[in-house]
Each structure stands twice: as structure tokens, then as C-alpha cells.
Amino acid sequence: MDLLSHQLARNSEMLFSFHKSHALLLGLIATIAASLTALARPAQPEASSMPSASPSATPIVFAEQTLADLKQLRQAALTSDYAFKQVAHLANNIGPRLTGSAQAAKAVEYVAGEMKALGCDVQLEKVVVPHWVRGAETAELTQFPGQAAGTTQKLVLCALGGSVATPPEGINADTVCVRDFEELTSLPREKVNGKIVLFNHSFDKQMAAQGHGGDAYDQAVVYRSDGPVAAAKLGAAACLIRSV
């Protein structure tokens, strides 16, 4: 089956063959990593020459043992690799944990067991969750500059979780390449309607190198969650997202 396609040249139009397998809904994984900080003593209010309009709140005072326990927990969070190892096991050993999947059930059992080993009182409850199943995905460029007669260019892609299936014959349409939401919304509807929108938004490596990898990721990954909806509002037939 022919599916989504990909291009790098912005604002160039190529003809794609687009086909997706049946899907339900993507579940999302959750991993746990916690760090604690302790307050050694209550902060003292700043001196002021102006009379207070209302009495100040009574500062919270921790017992010495509570402070000692909190400091110990904070130190463990800062120095121990326990949380990292748990996340690594969930990601590398158990693998993808879409809701409703066998891996998700295995992850629940594993985390419950680890928490019980730590002395926690753990109870599992049955819940109803959405379950999205990934099917086969293929894509190819069907028209592009420098194309040899009778050839296509196969592409590698992965369907976004929760994606719906294409028609049986797939989707074959021109592509509109934009850098961000602002550029997309600046286009008239007739430039987008019936076409495949490609968000060619690059990950900010410089921001990540300066210690803000999380912020850089958030700026790029938003196109996965909001990109298809933004494209659909302008009548797009499909949406492609550059890999983060």
C-alpha cells in the first residue's frame, strides 16, 4: 500500500502517493521520576517601613526528623540512578506501551512490583482505555524534479498515533511544505485544500546544546499533536511531520 511521503525543499510541490492502515487511537506511556527538595527553615519576611495591611501567615515549621528525611530523599534523587534504570527498563526491555497493548499491561505489572518491593501499598484497578493498532505504512514520491521515466522514490515513515486509515487506493496529491503554523495560516485555503501539508520544522540543536533540550523538543513536537488539525482546517488531504 502506498502511504505518506516526504520532501525537504520548502514550498516545492511534488506528487505523492499516500496510504495508511487502519487505526483506532494512540495510548500514551507514563514513566515516573521524582526529585524532592527540602526547606531547611522558613523564609524570613523582608523588612518594611510600611505597616502591614494584614497579619502575615504563620510560617511552616518542619520537625527536625522531617527535615532530615526530606534531605535524605533529596540527596537520593540527586545522586541515585534508580529512576533512570526504571525508565530504561520500561523503554528498552518492555518497549512501546500503547494503551491496551500487551506491553502496557506488562509495564503496569512491573511498576506495581517495583513499588511493592519498596514497601508501598499498591492496588491495581481495571480501567477502560482506547487502543490504537498500527498497521502497514508505505510512501513514495510519484513526481519530483530529476525523476527518471517510470520510477518513483520510496520513503520511510511512521504513522502518527491515532491516525485514521486512508482510502483503499491511498492518497495521491501535491505537497505544500511549510516551516511552521504561522506560514501555514498565511496561505489562502485554495493553496492547501486537497493537498498534503508537510511541516518542515527543524529541531533547535543550538537551544538543546545550551541545556534547554526539553524546550527545544516541545517546540518541535507540537507539530505532531496540532499539525494534522491545523492542516485539516484548511482542507488538507493529509499531513506529514518532519521527524524530531
Tags for this model:
alpha/beta; 6 strands; 244 residues; single chain; Glucose Oxidase, domain 1; 2 domains
Structure description:
It is a single chain. The chain contains seven helices and six strands; from the N terminus they run E-H-H-H-E-E-E-H-H-E-H-H-E. With 244 residues, it is of the alpha/beta class. A six-stranded mixed beta sheet has the order 3-2-1-4-5-6. The chain folds into two domains: 15-23 and 135-241, Glucose Oxidase, domain 1, CATH 3.50.30.30; 27-34 and 61-131, no CATH class. It has helices at 64-79, 82-94, 102-117, 181-185, 189-192, 205-209, 213-233; strands spanning 15-20, 137-143, 153-155, 171-178, 196-199, 238-241. It is elongated.
Layout of strands and helices, then pairs:
Blueprint: E1 15-20, H1 64-79, H2 82-94, H3 102-117, E2 137-143, E3 153-155, E4 171-178, H4 181-185, H5 189-192, E5 196-199, H6 205-209, H7 213-233, E6 238-241
Parallel strand pairs: 4-5, 5-6
Antiparallel strand pairs: 1-2, 1-4, 2-3
